[in-house]
């Protein structure tokens, strides 16, 4: 019997200040548990990409943000034990407008922190974090 084939659209926020980026740690049950990811996640039916960013950032960080321009997109196919997944990832810039930093409870992440860019490594962060860091390290983005 063949596995289900699923398409997933994920929308993420690249939120930075000075030499730091806001990241979430993947929690229990996640493939890359313990590694940093960007705040964001899967699109709900009927949401726009930016609405997904707003909801996911608030769920994972407690912060309300203003979503800026799309800075990166990619797709890939993963063969997981329970399903085959075609994933689309959209990264947007965002700025904090209000709220208090809070950790997600019973979600895909378990910690949110401002992380120094120099502390991000191949071993402690997933690929989209490295794409965000690459964008932020461009001369036009540096303070």
Can you tell me the overall shape?
Answer: globular
Number of domains: 1
If classified by CATH, what would the architecture be? Alpha-Beta Complex
CATH topology term: Nucleoside Triphosphate Pyrophosphohydrolase
Description:
The structure is a single chain. The protein is built from 2 helices and 8 strands; from the N terminus they run βββββαβββα. The chain is an alpha+beta fold. The mean pLDDT is 92. The chain has one domain: Nucleoside Triphosphate Pyrophosphohydrolase. It has a 4-stranded mixed beta sheet with strand order 5-1-7-6.
Sequence-ordered SSE layout with sheet pairings:
Layout: E1 5-14, E2 16-17, E3 20-26, E4 36-37, E5 40-42, H1 49-61, E6 63-79, E7 84-99, E8 109-116, H2 127-136
Parallel strand pairs: 1-7
Antiparallel strand pairs: 1-5, 2-3, 3-4, 3-8, 6-7
Summarize the structure.
The chain is α+β, with helices and mostly antiparallel strands and 143 residues long. The protein is built from two helices and eight strands.
Notable traits:
alpha+beta, four-stranded mixed β-sheet, 143 residues, globular, Nucleoside Triphosphate Pyrophosphohydrolase, four-stranded antiparallel β-sheet, 2 helices
């Amino acid at each position: 019997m063949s596995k289900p084939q699923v398409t997933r659209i994920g929308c993420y926020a690249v939120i930075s200040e000075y030499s730091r980026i806001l990241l979430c740690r993947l929690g229990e049950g996640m493939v890359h548990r313990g590694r940093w990811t960007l705040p964001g996640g899967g699109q709900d039916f009927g949401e726009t990409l930016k609405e997904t960013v707003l909801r996911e950032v608030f769920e994972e960080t407690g912060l309300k943000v203003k979503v800026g321009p799309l800075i990166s997109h990619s797709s890939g196919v993963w063969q997981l034990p329970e399903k085959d997944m075609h994933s689309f990832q959209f990264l947007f810039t965002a700025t904090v407008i209000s709220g208090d930093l809070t950790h997600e409870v019973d979600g895909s992440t378990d910690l949110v922190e401002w992380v120094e860019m120099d502390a991000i490594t191949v071993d402690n962060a997933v690929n989209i974090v490295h794409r965000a860091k690459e964008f932020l390290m461009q001369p036009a983005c540096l303070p």
